[in-house]
Amino acid sequence: MMNLLNDNSKNRALCERCLTDGLLTKVQRMVNISGVDPIIRSQDINSDAIRTLNVKNIIDNWYMVSYLWNEKDSTTMIKIPLKVEKVDEKCKIAYITPVQNGDQYGDELLSNCENMKACKIDETSGKSFIESFYKVYIASYCAMYKDVNAKLSTLRLSNLSHTALEQFGKAELENQKDGFNGYDLLINNFDFDCMWHRSFKINQLGDNVFQITYQAGSKTYKIIITIKKQNNRYLIDKISL
């Protein structure tokens, strides 16, 4: 907070020291979705916030960071739940609840993603292909790998047709022109968070057409996926919103 008031360039080194590599990679994606810095849940800071800053242990390795934007107005309180883990014997912030999920916290909200890491893509049917592809794909986001972008790119190159890859690239470029890097047409978003996994659904609309839906806070995202079979393999061939 002090750096934001004086020299924000110092916060890069601070975050590299105090955030896990995976969360460090995720933070900018969270900014692109919400428009605010997830570490403070605001675009800037003031002296009242610094004076009223408070941190308390909620449960296990979960903490609630809070502050008042206006010291004289209790309704201006901002709460930020986060999780701390030890990395090489040093405590680091490993997870921050997305703005969309308010003050939710707890390992049970993140546990759904653990089982997805071992999933493999199943091509026994079109439905099993799309279901298993998305399990593997969003598991890469939820695991917060340091090299998540490379993992996602590899999955797309192996499972999207040339047509779908062109669609993806065009949507990515359009967002880059507006100053937002990392847009992912397959989820119609810049990130996918573990807390959103419970709402994730795939419904078959036709022989080769599927609707993907999930909820991030109060907002519902919808993506229509068309697949095809080519050289005895299923591929995602069209992505529509």
Features:
241 residues, alpha+beta, four-stranded antiparallel beta sheet, 8 strands
**Terminal CA distance:** 38 Å
What's the rounded overall pLDDT mean?
Answer: 94
The 3D shape can be described as elongated
- Percentage of residues in DSSP E strands: 25-35%
Low-confidence stretches: none
Which structural class should the secondary elements be placed in? alpha+beta
Largest beta sheet: what is the strand line-up?
Answer: 1-2-3-4
Characterize the biggest β-sheet: 4 strands, antiparallel
The total count of strands amounts to: 8
Helix content: 25-40%
Secondary-structure element string: HHHHEEEEHHHEEEE
Question: Using only CA atoms, what is the Rg?
Answer: 20 Å
DSSP summary: helix tally? 7
Task: Please tell me about this protein's structure.
This protein is of the alpha+beta class and 241 residues long. Helix content is 33%, strand content 26%. The strands form 2 sheets. It has a 4-stranded antiparallel β-sheet with strand order 1-2-3-4. Strands 5-6-7-8 form a 4-stranded antiparallel β-sheet. Strand 6 (209-216) and strand 7 form a beta hairpin.
